[in-house]
Here is the input.
Amino acid sequence: MCHFDCYVCVSVMKKIKNGFLICIEGVDGSGKSLFAKALNQKLISHGYATLLTREPGGTELGERIRELLFDKKTPPCPKAEFLLFAASRAQHCHSLIAPALAENKIVISDRMADSSVVYQGYVRELSLDLIRSVNVWAMNELKPSIIFYLKVDPHTALNRISQRAIERCDFEDSISPLEKAICGFNTIFSGNDTVITLDATQSPEEVLAQGMQALEALL
Here is the structure.
């Protein structure tokens, strides 16, 4: 059963003991959302019970917060922006992710806590320690089983973003914030054993094939 209005897809099939949380991270233009959807469909075709969701959003409250965050008529200051992301994240983990993991599903989230570390920390220059502390509290210490990092250079990302027929957010309106975000992701994921880095300059099919190969070894 799929609820596309709130970007959540649920399938009841083969389950993983204790559940399995997958986070997809990367800058806008990396193909992150496309990869998350394709990975979800591939796992369903292999018989797994899955839940596909996103941040900010996922829950009804989260989707309303998402509208506030990306409404250019009322842009929040950096601190308010992070607190709104954290509020969406707290509801997301409490109402959606934790229950799905308790049902032994594979949960795929398009962005999670590390995006706030990068965008509100490295791009907005808020305190990294404070962001990490609030994230842990908001998520009740929940952590991804693995993180797929779709790595791409800023020029490729900006070129892809430019081809979209949608309004850009200020994180992607020029090369500078993209460069800061990529630097942030590269820094926080360096040496992290839970991170699987994929070359996102490849075709979506190649990225998916490599992601599935890595994931199958874990499952």
